[in-house]
Amino acid sequence: MTLQVAPPAVGTVRDVRAGAQGQSRLLVVAEQECRDLWTSGRGLILLFLFSVLLSGVTYLTSTNQALNFLEQRESVNLVLQFAVAVGVLATLVVSADGISGERERGTLETLLVTPVPRRSIIGGKLIAALSLWFATFLVSIPYVWVLARGVGILGRALALGFCVGTLVAIGLGSIGLLISAACNSNKTSIAASIFLLLILFAPTQLPSGLPQGWFFEVLLRANPVASGLAYISSILVEGHDWTQDLALLITPLLTAIIAGGALILAGPRLVRLTRGVNAG
Amino acid sequence: MRAALLFALLVGVLTWLPVPVLAAAPLSVKVVAEPAHIETVLGGRFMITTEITNTGTAPSGEILAHLNVASIEGSVYVDPEDWSPSRSQQLSLRPGESRKLTWEIQAVNAGHFAAYVVVVPFGDKVAGKEPLMISPLVDVEVATKPTLTAGGALPVVVLVPLLLGLAAAGVFFTARRRGSDR
Fold first, then answer.
1. Among A50, A264, A274, B26, fewest CB within 10 Å belongs to which?
2. What is the mean pLDDT of residues A101-120?
């Protein structure tokens, strides 16, 4: 059984006041979602685990004899790519819990009867998920600083990590919310999101010594995560100009636009009560 | 008798004469490498350029330029594949034509090395006795770099998770206490 709850009226497009109201409602939802994420300790626990992982990688790159031949720029690149990849994973996991989690906990009904447009609910949830990406980025700054000091690439590395990571996080966060809205069970939603991320990371794990033909190139360019990370490498390690490999950012940009657009357009129809695990 | 002598003379002359049509023209190329000397640090990336010129009068046919790296001091083990993942380039040159090839290399061992490019004929017509054309060696000196130390990274590696762990535990237990108070 599907219980359709009519969305509250938000007024016409021409009504500027209603628009401003909608914007403030979005911020109210975002604030509430962020409070839920951070004051419950969930966000900080994820951040703590992230920092433990990043500490391990940073310590390894700075002390391991086998990795010592790595040029310092490559060490920065390795840690930055790791930070972006895990930060995006955390964003995806949080966004994958967004709608299906509310359904499963039985709190979506309460949320839907509040005078907040469903688009604002989705937008607020996306902002909350992105707050985790921004937090992971802040945590990764000291690690990048430790490795990049003395090489003169600290500013460039941080700017790159922030821009590329934010782009990928918006795209994957939106996909996570779409998956979450489409799934009845939270387990299914999170499993599907992690599986999607594994598929996206798989090409980045291929040995660099393998012959890489046109198929690999297509795979790399069609994948928002792999192409975003390849863009970071091309600038940090190969010393390319910002504009030289800009084509690598097309897929992350398109993913953010298409998934974000789909979320805005289809969001109001997707956020609804369905027969979930706790719905009886 | 005279006819036999004439025949023997003819055979002798014919066998003595070179037969350029049947045998492949010997490979005649000149290989120049630049720069002659490179100083870098462990992990440093550098590029060498070789110019291969066909100095002969016949087309070179398919030839293969192959980069190699050897240690010329001490007993450093060198695996050239680690230094450069793409070490072979195939080409063919017309008489007088020259081609510049670039080789991207990363120094993965510290020490004193020679990098050089050898040009070999390529394809199924190679008989096995053709001479090799080798570039002059590029002298590569790789210094050990001041690597990152555990001491430099340790404060960040320990402090960041410690502070975040404490903050997470504090927030988590406060939230739990608040929940049980209700």
1. B26
2. 82
- The predicted complex's ipTM stands at 0.77
Could you tell me the pTM of the whole model? Answer: 0.66
End-to-end alpha carbon distance in chain A: 10
Interchain contact, B156 vs A58, CB within 8 Å: yes
CA distance linking residue B140 with residue B81, whole number of Å: 16
Helices within chain A (DSSP H only): 16-39, 42-63, 72-105, 108-113, 118-148, 154-182, 186-201, 214-222, 224-236, 250-270
Q: Which amino acid is at A11?
A: G
Q: Give the mean pLDDT of B72-84.
A: 84
Taking contacts as CB-CB distances below 8 angstroms, the residues of chain A near B43 are 69-72, 74
For residue B45, name the pLDDT band (cuts at 50, 70, 90). Answer: confident
CB atoms within 10 A of CB A15: 12
Contact A47 B164 (CB under 8 A): yes
What's the length of chain B? 182
Structural domains in chain B, CATH included, are: 20-143 (2.60.40.10)
**pLDDT on residue A279:** 44
Confidence grade of residue A208 (pLDDT, cut at 50, 70, 90):
low
Place B102 in a pLDDT band, splitting at 50, 70 and 90: very high
pLDDT at A23: 67
User: Which residue of A47, A62, A142 is in closest CB contact with B149?
Assistant: A62
In a 10 Å sphere around its CB, with 0-12 CB exposed, 13-18 middle and 19+ buried, how is residue B155 labelled? exposed
| Model pLDDT, residue B139 | 95
Say which of A47, A58, A69 has its CB closest to residue B108.
Answer: A69
Give the domain ranges of chain A: 25-270
Collapsed DSSP state (helix, strand, coil) of residue B67:
strand
